[in-house]
Amino acid sequence: MLSGIPPFYGDDAAQIFEAVVRGNLRFPSKLFRSVSSSAKDLLRKMLCRDASRRFSAEQALRHPWILRGGETVEN
What we know:
Residues 1-66 form the Protein kinase domain. This is Protein kinase domain-containing protein. The chain contains 5 helices and no strands. By secondary structure, it is mostly helical. The chain has one domain. The longest helix has 10 residues, at 13-22. It is flat. The model has no long low-confidence stretch (mean pLDDT 87).
């Protein structure tokens, strides 16, 4: 996505799948240093495991990161 890798980690496909199922998002500093906290906030909200709390497309489009033009790096 924004860093070139997905926010789910695992040593193999099974571990990555398990991380996705559990909703274990990771943003390692080395790989996500150029990704703003606002962008990471939007990712967390769109990838929320709890469907009742997960952002809809409409909510995502109203997120501050989108409204500011999707700047990757924090100023």
